[in-house]
Amino acid sequence: MASRVIPVDDFDLVIFGGTGDLARRKILPGLFRRFCAGQMPPNARVIGAARSNLDSDSYRQMVREAIGEFGGEQACDDAHLDAFLARLEYLVIDARGDDGWEELQTMMLGTDRIEAYYFSVSPVLFGDIAERLQKWGMADSRARIVVEKPFGRDLQTARALNKTLATYFNEDQIYRIDHYLGKETVQNLMAVRFGNMLFEPLWNSQYVDHIQITVAETVGVGGRGEYYDKAGAMRDMVQNHLMQLLCLIAMEPPARFAPDAVRDEKLKVIRALDPVAPYHIVRGQYQADPENEVERPGYRTAVDNPKSRTESFIALRTEISNWRWAGTPFYLRTGKRLAARSSEITVVFKDTPHNIFGEDAGRHRNVLSILLQPNEGITLGVTIKEPGPGGMRLIDVPLDMSFAETLGDDDVDHVDAYERLIMDVIRGNQTLFMRGDEVEAAWAWTDPIIEGWEARNDVPKPYDHGSTGPTDATDLMRREGRKWQKITQ
Length: 489
Ligand code: NAD
Known about the structure:
The protein is α/β, with parallel strands linked by helices. It is built from 14 helices and 15 strands. The strands form two sheets. Strands 14-13-12-11-7-10-9-8-15 form a nine-stranded mixed beta sheet, with helices on both faces.
């Protein structure tokens, strides 16, 4: 099946922080892949803007190397790469001063293209950049801005940031990015839920026993130690990525697949989330890898803070107080240095009301697994009779709904979340971006949880490198007669 690429209108994309890690690893290789796919119009321009003292030629060389390193299989031939690099410019700019702004203004004004400004810089610079865009006449109605996480560190700072951005831009010009929402499977989750009759009638507390969301990483904090130690897993992962996944899995069907209709329903989920009791929270810190303590030190060494109480792992249980979900537990879990890199949403259905096959059958439950990484796909575990003679023995087999195999590998899973989201920005489609009130509601739920453990002087439990987190996390499920899905690649 041939891939359908819908071209977008001419645009200029300015990447503030165009020399940074995110730009080199994700944004620029992603744009190149869209260029190769024929989606980027031939006259589109990408302008890297950062503090490093480069000219456009040396910037192109830097981007060439970045694409070589991070471009992935999709990267096409050298002629395409040269043509893509020819669309790139670079400007030395100071987000906090006047350097470079006049040059940027000269480049941007006098065209009727779409203008997108990607704030791929530290959030402390978001306000400065927004202010200067307005001062130099670039915050007009054609402009849209893309802001990266973290969006605040609590409700107060998120509100302040929303207020600052709202001084210069309307809400429909602000694209708060959460790359989890750009994943193919996340959108497929909506298609599966709202495009089929099969699941929606069962999608409630009457038929669903519980839902689990796991985002497990094998990496440690790496070079982000200073930032991470002030944030922790709750702020860095739960408040944004896991909450967004929770919203999509739990929300009511929106009336239309339109940005505000979808985001209104997500907001209702966040607002209906119950506070989390202390005994429903497990926090952990990873220990050093005993086989290589130098390369894989423990958390406290990695962040250079021997008394750190920041969590690199969290598991918690919450409920959603509404008609659909009352009484259904939602278990969220995320951590670093775990057994495998794996993100998965699991919907575990209840037992059949009556078991006609004998004692054994109670162990068999339908489980819908939505895999987000490293491989994307959806499987539904169904119970069948084990083939062959020997009586009525039941086994669970996965019904594979992986679109990659069905639709042809080329078409689907090579569009990285970032490139999809950037094209959505150009198209002006905010469905997969967080609205200001959503972010604030997420912090309003998160803040008391964090304040609670700070007030209790809670110390995270140590857990082994390459494990599934502290044993208390296993107990969180076990004491309710449930268990986590295995963390496997
Ligand atoms: P980075 O430190 O690698 O790059 C920062 C960029 O900002 C550089 O290009 C630098 O020149 C530029 N910069 C710094 N001060 C400036 C100033 N005063 N004026 C103009 N430019 C200035 O950071 P990064 O990892 O690329 O992250 C960028 C943003 O994306 C951050 O908000 C980060 O939280 C977010 N983010 C990054 C990742 C990632 O994987 N790197 C993932 C998610 C979110």
